[in-house]
Design brief:
Rossmann fold; alpha/beta; 13 helices; five-stranded mixed beta barrel; OB fold (Dihydrolipoamide Acetyltransferase, E2P)
Amino acid sequence: MQNFGCRATQADGAALERDLLGRGLSRALSANHAEVVVLNTCTVTAEADKDARATIRRLNRENPGCRILVTGCYAQRAPQELEGLPGVAWVVGNSHKHQIGEILDHDCHPERSATEQTGAPCKPGLGLQGWQSGEARVEGPLYSLEALASPYVGDIFAHTELMAAPVFDGLGYDKTRPNLKIQDGCDNRCSFCIIPFVRGPSRSLRRDDVLREMDALVAAGFREVVISGINLGRWGRDLEPAQRFEDLVGAILAHTGVERLRLSSIEPMDWTDELIELAAGSARIARHAHVPLQTGSDSVLRRMHRRYRPWHYEDRIHKIRAAMPRAAIGADVMVGFPGETETEFEENRRFIASLPFTYLHVFTYSARPGTPAADMPGQLPVEIKRGRNRVLRELAAEKKQEFMRSLVGQTVSTITLSVVEQDTTETLTDNYQKLWLEGRHPPNHILSARIDALDNDALLGTIH
């Protein structure tokens, strides 16, 4: 199995793989040894689509005997583009992703009825790669597979299922920092974004399920857990009765033994005063806030249909910085939105320069068919977008260096990731900085360390 794209896609893939392994399928040593390969795709940009198509063609060229199942966001958005590619046997959109196990059983064992299916593999050694643990929750309407054929794609807004399984970072067998998706879908309608149309409405993992997953991860020995979602701060709004994200965070701290909880990307309007106070007041929450911006130009924000104004965003960032002076603060920013003038871009650059960011994820606008922005006038030439991207990346690099320099001489909490060399261990600080420690330390340990030096882009330290 190969996953493309965001943390949510990685989590979907982990839940899917767990289901397939539970049906008796086995992992192949590599895609070249697989009889079936599952590709879980992204479609947030045209480049993501291109990567998926290139992977399909490469797999078919290197292993022409394997059958390819394509799922995920690209499969939901444009199944017809995928089903004609060589080697593709199934296209399954997000609307039917939770039925992939049934689809493989049904298509590979048509002689068995649903009540006779035993979960045996489609073929011995069906090719899957990866690892996961925990429980998935699958709800929503099931379709009769007898009445369907590939592509399996339906109305994503008619579904309420949420696939969830932890995803693990780390190299080799040094697994650490599991990522748990607790929310999927989005009710916003940003004019540039295709995600609501391929992932559906916002839906949440129930509070008790989140706590159970967290308890299982703690029992397995993991020290840091990252919680994530497509629109994480909207967690709980769809539940009955409605609940608040900050209350869930409080419940995790109160009812589980997780040593460090890291919050993934949260929209600015969901960084409430209560959430900021909670994050600042608990040593168990990582000092890290990722707050999507997109642009600091008010006129462009309005064309993007974003739900805040620059001054709203600025207020949230300054409150986060005041409450957590050494926190990492990052943002997603976009350049080249249709009609973006030099004046608007300069407004964006100045706004970003004025705020205490420690890193930026800079994206170039990519038109997504089916979104309002794709049909807007003023689509910018590639060379202009590339130039603006470069300007913001240089600004981001300056801010990152400034923040790293400010940490030299400080004592920080850091989690070990993997041994890079015999006498050097890679770690991640609670404020989201890679720190290389002297000595060989096992992964998944939280240590107190002193940052001794900044060597180019590398922070170097020793155990305190």
